[in-house]
Amino acid sequence: MLNIALPKGRLGDNVYSKLRASGLECPDVDDNNRKLIFESSDKTVRFFWVKPSDVSIYVERGAADIGVVGKDILVEYEPNVYEILDLGIGKCRMVVAGPKDFYDNGDRTLRVATKFSSIASNYYTSIGRDIDIIKLNGSIEIAPILGLSDVIVDIVETGTTLRENNLEIKTVIMPISARLIANKTSFKFKDDEINKIMNKIKGQINND
Amino acid sequence: MKETIIDEKNLRDDERAILALRSIYKRYGYLPYRMSKFEEYELYIRNKDFLVSDRVITFNDTTGKLMALKPDVTLSIIKNGDDITGYKQKVYYSENVYRVSDSTGRFKEIMQTGLECIGDINLYDIYEVIALAAQSLNVISDSFIIEISNLDILSKLIKSCNDDESFFEKAISFISEKNSHDLKRLCEEYKVDAKNCATLQMLVKTYGERSKVLETLESCCADDDLKKMRELSVMLDNSPFSDKIRFDFSVVSNINYYNGFMFKGFIDGISDRILAGGQYDKMMTKLERSSKAIGFALYLDLLEQLPAKRNEYDVDVLLVYDGKTDMSLLIKKVDEIISSKRSVTTQQMIPSNLRFREMIDLREDR
Questions:
Q1: Most buried in the list A34, A101, A103, A154, measured by CB within 10 Å?
Q2: What single-letter DSSP state applies at residue B169?
Q3: What ipTM did this prediction achieve?
């Protein structure tokens, strides 16, 4: 049996619906219950939903054989896993954003608020800019408004939240999309099962 | 020392593995290598990329010299050997090393076992070391896989696409992640022609049974490059574990130190590679040695991930006595139990957290 870690939220639900459409339905999922783990009717896979940033931990440690995770998490935490497929869904961008009237003239240390401290520090190191990282866990957009930081490094999908808070994109660091990852040991011992699931997801994505 | 009877039941998984591994390595003429726990810090700082982590526990010894608790064994073995034409130094070790744990970010003592073959290495030695790696994994579990890649072929193919250093680094990282989608994007970014790009992607997608991988590679690799892989594969046909030894180019390492054949070993139920090894001639050159070298290390601390065999009881017999108990009766009872090959603990009360099979109460008022 293959264990699949899915991120809680829209992305995980989307991937589950693709697998359901390809025949891997779990009868209990749609019931309103408190179950955390669901088995498919044919008993070939087991799904569980976890916090998006935890998916790579479950897969790296082998508690899940495969999982779905945003490229942002993979770049930030560099888990020791195989990245076997770009699902091409959950597309967004990792950007530097700041108040519309803010201009970085480089005369002092740039204060950067972010959840992604590793991505932010690697980006600014690559352009040789000295920064002070302010690690936050949510509502990053408030930081420049309240003067906690000059800019933010965060994920932007449509840009609505930025616009509503008078912020704008200054630089795009990288495009992000959801990726299918696999535990390295599982990939050796369950390669047939993993390839089958991968092809099912690929098939559904191509149908869209 | 007198020969003592070792009760295998009492050994932990890693202790049992070490005993079995020692006898395998000895049979193939590998000698035990003992070393001090400390090494001059300079050795590690000069070669920090060779280490799994560059963070090392340091201290000043009595002469003021900066020393380190060993984070690695191989460097010390290389440093202390001699180059003699025609000779091969074959050693094995099992030593504690001190490294930062990935999960906690703190220093951890790790038991590392492995072997090194240093000298005039030829294809037979490479075969022998890989075959010993397979035998080592077989000590732990029947369900294991060894994957071999060849860094020389990999480097040549990547460099033929683009000579840029940053292209090389990114490409090798995507190959190690089996990430063919980002590899394709990278090729587009660096304007690599479609044929070469397809070859790199094929390296990611081609893995598994040796003969099949060789067959696929024939379309894109020069015959000379493949010759060694083909010869090694034929030699590995002789191993009783031949079907568990595969080719996979996602096995990579730092090319400033390693070259030629690299390999990793996996065991079903352990989430990370438990064995890693390969040829490190470039490291030898950096340490001013003319010999070639190959070796591997086993990370036995990972055995803790396998399901534990739980003992139902801590002790067979709990013998309870008090101040009034006849001591000769107590001694006699203990001897009786021991000679019946059971374990016993003598206590003056019944410990609340002790799991015992049977209790004998010698207290007078009971």
A1: A154
A2: H
A3: 0.82
Q: pTM for the whole thing?
A: 0.85
Contacts of A110 (CB under 8 A, 6+ apart): A104, A124, A129, A130, A131, A132, A150, A151
When CB atoms are compared, the residue of B182, B250, B271 closest to A185 is B271
Place of tokens 């795009």: A172
The CATH number of the structural domain formed by B8-305 is 3.30.930.10
Task: List the domain boundaries for chain B.
Answer: 8-305, 315-361
B245 C-beta neighbours (distance < 10 Å), count = 24
Distances from the Cα of B181 to the Cα of A72, A177, B201, B259, angstroms:
16, 12, 8, 26
**Residue pLDDT, tens place only, B112-161:** 899 999 999 999 999 999 999 999 999 999 999 999 999 999 999 999 99
Q: Measure in Å the smallest separation between the Cα of A96 and chain B Cα atoms.
A: 22
- A175 Cβ under 8 Å from any chain B Cβ: no
Q: Which two tokens stand for residue A176?
A: 């992000």
DSSP states along A139-194: -TTHHHHTTS-SEEEEEESSSHHHHHTTEEEEEEEEEE-EEEEE-HHHHHHSHHHH
